[in-house]
Every structure is written in structure tokens, then in C-alpha cells.
Design goal:
single chain; 91 residues; alpha+beta; four-stranded mixed β-sheet; 3 helices; 4 strands
Length: 91
Amino acid sequence: MALPTITITYCTQCNWLLRSAWMTQELLSTFGTELAAVTLVPGTGGIFEIRAAETLIWERKRDGGFPDIKTLKRAVRDLIDPDRDLGHIDR
């Protein structure tokens, strides 16, 4: 089974690169061996989306801002390994 790729599309006009890079680092630290890659994709117009393949995990306008890291890690875990314990994040 192929490992999933997470894609974070962020707005360059809004300067969301650092936020996106931080989220990338957090996902790779937590799920490093369970992901094929976390890819950053520059965009414009206020876009901020996180996808696992074609599944939309988070969309800034739809979901009301940005996810906190616990919410993002839980969403990714629920897609790639629902039985995995995330330690203190799940408490």
C-alpha cells in the first residue's frame, strides 16, 4: 500500500509560508515513516488548504481559520492510522 502525501496549499500574498512550514515539520515529526511526503504548494487569493491525496482535511474559509496542531494531527491520524495513539494529544 502506498504511503499518503499531504499537500498544504498556502497564500504567498498573505505570507503564510512560515505557518505552513511549521505545520509540515510537525506532521513529519509525528508521522515521518507513515507519510510519503508533505508538500508545500504556493497559491494566492487567501488560499489555505490541507489535503491527503484528494481528501480535503482543512480549508481556511470553510473551517474558519487555521487548525491548531492537535486538530491537524488528529485529522491526519484518523485518515492514515485511526487506531494510533497520539500520546498527550489524545488526552
